[in-house]
Design a protein that fits this description.
Distance between the termini: 97 Å
Number of strands: 4
Strand content: 5-15%
Strand order of the largest sheet: 1-2
Largest sheet: 2 strands, antiparallel
Shape: flat
Order of helices and strands: HHEEEHHHE
Radius of gyration: 42 Å
Amino acid sequence: MMPISGVNTGAVQPLTTAEKVLGASKVQKPEEEAQGRPRKPVMDEYIPEEPQEPSGRYWMGKDEDGQPKIYFDDRSRAADAPRQPEDAPKAEEPDPADQGAKGPERNEDKEEVWEGNTDEVDREIEKLKKKQQELEQRINTETDEAKIKDLERQLFQVEQELKQKDSDTYRRQHASFTQLS
């Protein structure tokens, strides 16, 4: 490292000398430039776009009451096609009356009713709860440290399984459904 006192200052020239050498030209300031010409008002310009084809995208918006609403740009419907009311019959679906099915042969008059049964899942959860109680009792009566650690490991596994299975989601997923006539 070189001390500052040893730096050659002969290369540095005063500012006035540098201006004389370069013959610095006068720099025009922005205020002077702006005074020389009249100002034009700055405005945005609207350029209309042609309607685009539906892209099948969803977006959030607000309805006429200001409530959040999800909008969908349907690809299957052309952009200029009129919107049908939601309760209007669809044009693609054939009218069931035109199919010739009459009287008791029509299945559309019957409503399907299904019943869910979670008894099997409930029995499985009860078994796990009983096993958990049994393991807790065995841990409290056991004196051997190795056996206690093994029982605690088993208890932890049972608690984790019980935590997973004792939920509404698990019950719905593992319920058995039967159709009622």
